[in-house]
Fold this sequence. Notes:
The protein is built from 23 helices and eleven strands. The termini are far apart. It is an alpha+beta fold. The protein is extended.
Amino acid sequence: MCIRDSTVRVRGLQGMEGWHGTVVGREQDGWLVLVRCCVGSTTAYVGCDRLTAATDADLAGEVEAARVMRQLDGAAGELWRAAEEQRAVLAAAMAQAEGKRACTRRKEAQKADRRYQAEVERAQRELEWSYTRRAAGGGDGRVGPLVLDDRLADAGVEAPQMVGGLVLPPASEMQWVRELQEDLQPVRAGMVLRDIPHDSDDLHELWSACVADVLMHILSDWDDALWWLVLDLMPRWCLSYTKAAGAHKTCVAGQVRQQMVLFRKGEWRRLHRRHETREQARGGDGGGRSEGSEERAARWYVERGRFREAMSTLSAGDGGVAEVTQEQLEQLEELHPRRYPDCPLPSYTPPQASRFRNRRQVEAAVQKVLPKLDKGIGADCAGWCYEHVKVLMDRGTAVTQQVVTSFMQAQLLVPVSEQVADLYSCARLIAFDKGGGSGKLRPVAVGKVWRRVAGKVACSSMRGVFSQLFGRARQFGVAIPGGVDILVHMCQLALAGDPDAVLFLTDFANAYNSIARGHIMQEVLDRLPDLAPLVWSCYDHDAVVWVWSAAMGKWEKIMSAEGVMQGCPLGPVLFALGVLQMSVDLHADFPDAMGGAYLDDMPTVLPAGMVGAYLEALERRA
Length: 622
């Protein structure tokens, strides 16, 4: 049956047999169906056979059904196209998700591989440590506390848990290390990596393990200078590096990691030769500043967001670090007087009940001090920086932190021996120009990092004691918050109350280096005995102070025999302690005087007729 718009094939017409066409209508007088046939560009309407079996109603129903079917086909087509678009979007999303899952699986596989490698290395270290201990006749030794030196155990130092993994070199190598001390000089500027890469957790762990191993040996034999020397050599052996232009930071991390592994294997001579080769190839200016160093320092501060320090570095100009010539070297030697024969050093007397026997108090002070250590502070003559110590507490294991705390406690309870004193107390000297065109220098000593950290821990623990002791003597330079403001307001009020009063300003020349060291140490025994062990470690002998001479291109030695080092954390406390009795006596002799002291600056408001007597008393007691 033919339906409008349906496709039919023409039959019975000459010349058009087999053509296909479309039904377009019918004639009025019968059921002759008109068919439109298109072949190429030719269109013809022909009539097909007469339909006698259908009625008008049948044809109308079929036409309506065809119309509905066309609408349904159109709607179905739109739905199909929408479904195809959604299917394409879903396929893209699934491909993206699969890519992310593949990346995640790849990263997890890499992390698992690193963890596996770390476990393998840790197992190897434990095996090496076991072999080393058995060869020494000590068994495994990893279970239980460390066997402390007798002096440390008697003083009350708490033993940490054992750590290990360091393979000891042969006896001949150990003797070679001892001989290095005679010709050892400070590390040149820029030779040691200051910031251990933060994206290398295994590097931090490896560094912490290396340092903990050396500290453990020091705690087991406190008087042996060998392991103190190894501690000094660690930065140049493990953190020395060569960075080519354009090299990625992972190249430096790879060098450092390899050197730490060699250190743990006991290949120290190889590490020392490598550092010497790099030092000779790099040259450098020792401890001084080369051309453009201010710009490099300012760039370093800017990269870390410390813009104030960057501006201060660029605008330093007059009053900055001086290039030490022969004339200035002689001036620095004059600023470090020889030992006063009329003021000998007292004998050491251990404190009866030191506060530092309390392990928890020392641990709390260490946890408080170490996170506050400033970054960018100059390295000591061995290359140690505060950043190297902070890694031990930030990224080290609990056992490493116990070892560091025990080492701090040992420094605060037991002075070092004479064999260790030269290594412990030496410092690097920086000569600052006082400015004004006078040519005068201000020597600032950068002592060993471990000594400075121990001094900060001691000062943090005894802050309350310092506040009470120096507050009564009107010494506002130690442990008195806002001490300068208090002293200035006191003088202003005194001058406002007596218009005829005179402001007498006292400033000691070369105060830190010229005060009698024997007097300070006796005051420590009498007033602050808990500080005695650390003070004796630092000042019971003549200390070597290294200064870079630009004129001769080498390091020069200056002996520090008197006073305290300006730059030592204990320096302000010890100087204030040295002038404490003088301040108390002056306040007692001149009760009408109003004033105080801020370290070596002593402003005092006096009645006009009392200036001469005050000056005589000051000269007599100084």
